[in-house]
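Quick question about two entries, pasted in order.
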Amino acid sequence: MKLLIDIGNTRLKWALVRDGQFIDSGAMVHDGEPARTIAQLPASKPDAIWISHVMGFTHEHALSEAVRSQLAIMAETQR
């Protein structure tokens, strides 16, 4: 299962994908602190996490650490 995360300027959108099929998704406002929002994602054990974002280097490090801490996996990121 993959967790896909798209972070814009105001919202974090996410989707869980298994065998090429979307099985769950959602969105939430992140108030400029998307790393704090990672803890609000549904409990899951994905095999991979892919993050796309527009937040810059400072937030990228915080996002990577939040994902590693909360989900025990390193995320692939793309700006």
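Here is the second entry:
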Amino acid sequence: MSKTKDQVREVTTALGNETSFSGIMRFKDSLKINGMFTGEIKSNGYLHIENGAVVNADIFVGSLIIGGTVRGNIQASE
């Protein structure tokens, strides 16, 4: 599957596939999650949940791409 220009964005921060994190995550620009996250994510920025990632969280972001597994409420303004 090819990505459109709007789907391809520079990611400034990443949680690697060996990473497991829980708590409240806040970020400014962009975040890619490759590993596991549990908790809450809040940002006006761009969130990319990569294939194979597992996220159990309520998510409130500017924009979002989901490739992995997400459990929780999602609110994205774009």
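Reply: The CA atoms of residues 66 and 73 lie 13 Å apart. Strands lie at 14-15, 20-26, 30-33, 36-42, 46-49, 54-61, 63-66, 69-71, 74-76. Hope that helps.
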